[in-house]
């Protein structure tokens, strides 16, 4: 199982806790994780990736094993620690705004 | 006994304010969607328990929420707003071409005849329609496809389609307004559109009387007279008696004709309300005095309404969708401010009372009169 940590607003929207566990087929990539996340929680569509381009929304970042994966290809294979469920994929909102 | 439900969109959530027909004692529900910007909430005239809300923020984009029980519970519905075909470009602030990019829904206008049909006015300017209760949206692309589209330019708040008015007599006729392109009308249910800006004069434009490019802030109509329109332009309050074909200024004795909100009395088609704002560089009332101005003559002759409103040290703004009226026998008038107050008058504007004083900045106010 893959573990995903969502920002607070998306937890509220999806009605879930801090971490979401998902079945994702190998090779585990951010795109595949997001596909699985949106399939399970359709209300999250468009909130993490832009409709049309499929790109990460500008005010969000992806962190994996204490590294910023925001600018990696969405199709890049995630580290084994994430693929094996030992570390989560963190989706983090920018600290900004009022 | 009749009752009233006031739907309030704010910078940090939605609120529902409810009262019986006396409009003296109010209950406040919310915040719904806490922390999100709620540009607009509006109920269906066909089924008052069917509400639509536009929920967005910079982090997570646009959501649309629907309630089928008058705002007690909500369900997210479709949020995919895809422009029809290749979006093309409009003008950026500096006059260079800029790609059309969806940013948010400014206004949701439920159909007058079908609770599952609703229109969405969006930024960058376009009009979308849903016929399945908001589950899916398709663009009425004839508007953006109007030949003038590449020349449209954003106002300070973005290039937003903020006003949608449905003709209660002719189902095929709709009006919309865009900052800063102007007003447009369709007579064929959205297939084709024409600019209706003749008579508008905008001194800041290279051609002050151009066919498009005017910063229309809001337009209002009385249901009994769908050919008569009232407009709060960036500067100037305007009136049309021929469905927008021609406009004339009716600012009259207003102390300033800048403003955002405009609305019409529910039972008196010649009685209208505006909130004069000092200027486009100072978005607050003149001399710190919050005043609604009322005309009982369809414009030109205006009177200030001040009873119950702060007459010193008040520096709030009232946005374009933040005024509404109820349809009780003695018409109620409501407006919300950037300071978080929602004021109500149960006597057509003669006296005002704050329903709430300390909400987040108010972006929209809509009123439902319930049997």
- Which CATH C-level class of chain B is it? Mainly Beta
Shape of chain A: globular
* Number of domain units of chain B: 1
The strand count of chain A comes to 5
Write up this protein:
The complex is a heterodimer of chains A (98) and B (371). Chain A is an alpha+beta fold and 98 residues long. Chain A has one domain (2-93): Ubiquitin-like (UB roll), CATH 3.10.20.30. Chain A is built from three helices and five strands, in the order βαβαββαβ. In chain A, strands 2-1-5-3-4 form a five-stranded mixed β-sheet, with helices on one face. In chain A, strand 3 and strand 4 (67-68) form a beta hairpin. With 371 residues, chain B is mostly beta strands. Chain B has a single domain (36-358), classed as YVTN repeat-like/Quinoprotein amine dehydrogenase (Methylamine Dehydrogenase, Chain H, 7 Propeller). Chain B contains one helix and 30 strands. In chain B, the strands form eight sheets. In chain B, strands 3-2-1-30 form a four-stranded antiparallel β-sheet, with no helix packed on it. Chain B has a four-stranded antiparallel β-sheet with strand order 4-5-6-7, with no helix packed on it. The radius of gyration of chain B is 19 Å and the shape is globular. The chains are: A alpha+beta (98), B mainly beta (371). The A-B interface holds A 7, 9-10, 12-13, 43, 45-48, 50-52, 57, 59-60, 93-94, 96-97 and B 34-36, 57-63, 76, 79-82, 102.
What key attributes describe this structure?
heterodimer, A: 98 residues, alpha+beta, Ubiquitin-like (UB roll), five-stranded mixed β-sheet, B: 371 residues, mainly beta, Methylamine Dehydrogenase, Chain H, four-stranded antiparallel β-sheet, 1 helix, globular
List the helices and strands and how they pair.
The complex is a heterodimer of chains A (98) and B (371).
Chain A: E1 2-5, H1 8-14, E2 19-22, H2 30-40, E3 60-64, E4 67-68, H3 80-83, E5 89-93
Parallel strand pairs in A: 1-5
Antiparallel strand pairs in A: 1-2, 3-4, 3-5
Chain B: E1 3-10, E2 13-20, E3 27-32, E4 37-43, E5 51-57, E6 61-67, E7 75-76, E8 89-91, E9 97-99, E10 104-110, E11 118-123, E12 126-130, E13 138-139, H1 141-144, E14 160-166, E15 174-179, E16 182-186, E17 194-195, E18 216-222, E19 225-233, E20 237-240, E21 248-249, E22 262-264, E23 272-274, E24 292-295, E25 303-305, E26 323-325, E27 333-336, E28 342-345, E29 353-356, E30 362-370
Antiparallel strand pairs in B: 1-2, 1-30, 2-3, 4-5, 5-6, 6-7, 8-9, 10-11, 11-12, 12-13, 14-15, 15-16, 16-17, 18-19, 19-20, 20-21, 22-23, 23-24, 24-25, 26-27, 27-28, 28-29
């Amino acid at each position: 199982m893959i573990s995903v940590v969502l920002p607070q607003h998306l937890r509220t929207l999806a009605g879930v806790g801090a971490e979401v566990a998902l079945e994702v087929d190998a090779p585990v990539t951010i795109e595949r994780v997001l596909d699985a996340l949106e399939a399970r929680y359709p209300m999250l569509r468009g909130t993490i990736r832009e409709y049309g381009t499929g790109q990460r929304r500008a005010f969000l970042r992806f962190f994996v094993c204490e590294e910023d994966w925001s600018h990696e290809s969405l199709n890049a294979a995630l580290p084994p620690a994430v693929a094996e469920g030992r570390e989560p994929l963190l989706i983090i909102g920018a600290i900004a705004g009022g | 006994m009749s009752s009233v439900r006031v739907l309030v969109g704010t910078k940090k959530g939605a609120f529902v304010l409810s009262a019986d027909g006396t409009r003296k004692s109010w209950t406040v529900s919310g915040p719904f969607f806490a922390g999100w910007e709620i540009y607009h909430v509006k109920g269906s005239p066909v089924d008052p328990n069917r509400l639509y809300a536009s929920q967005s923020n910079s982090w997570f984009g646009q959501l649309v929420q629907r309630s089928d029980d008058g705002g007690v519970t909500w369900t997210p519905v479709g949020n995919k707003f895809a422009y029809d075909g290749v979006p093309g470009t409009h003008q950026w602030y500096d006059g260079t071409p800029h790609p059309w990019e969806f940013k948010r829904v400014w206004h949701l206008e439920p159909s007058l005849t079908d609770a599952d049909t609703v229109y969405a006015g969006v930024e960058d300017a376009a009009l979308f329609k849903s016929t399945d209760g908001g589950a899916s949206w398709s663009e009425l692309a004839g508007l953006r496809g109007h030949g003038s589209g590449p020349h449209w330019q954003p106002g300070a708040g973005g290039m937003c389609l903020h006003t949608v008015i449905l003709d209660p007599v002719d189902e095929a006729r709709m009006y919309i307004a865009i900052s800063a392109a102007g007003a447009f009308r369709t007579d064929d249910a959205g297939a084709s559109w024409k600019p209706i800006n003749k008579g508008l004069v905008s001194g800041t434009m290279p051609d002050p009387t151009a066919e498009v490019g005017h910063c229309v802030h809001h337009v209002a109509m009385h249901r009994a007279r769908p050919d008569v329109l009232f407009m709060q332009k960036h500067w100037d309050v305007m009136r049309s008696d021929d469905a927008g074909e021609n406009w004339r200024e009716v600012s009259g004795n207003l102390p300033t004709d800048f403003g955002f909100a405009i609305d019409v009395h529910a039972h008196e088609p010649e009685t209208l309300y505006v909130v004069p704002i000092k200027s486009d560089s100072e978005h607050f009332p003149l001399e710190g005095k919050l005043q609604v101005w009322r005309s009982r003559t369809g414009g030109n002759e205006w009177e200030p309404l001040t009873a119950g409103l702060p007459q010193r040290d008040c520096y709030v703004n009232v946005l374009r969708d933040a005024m509404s009226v109820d349809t009780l026998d003695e018409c109620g008038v409501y407006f919300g401010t950037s300071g978080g107050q929602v004021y109500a008058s149960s006597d057509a504007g003669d006296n005002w009372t704050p329903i709430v004083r300390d909400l987040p900045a108010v972006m929209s106010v809509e009123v439902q009169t319930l049997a």
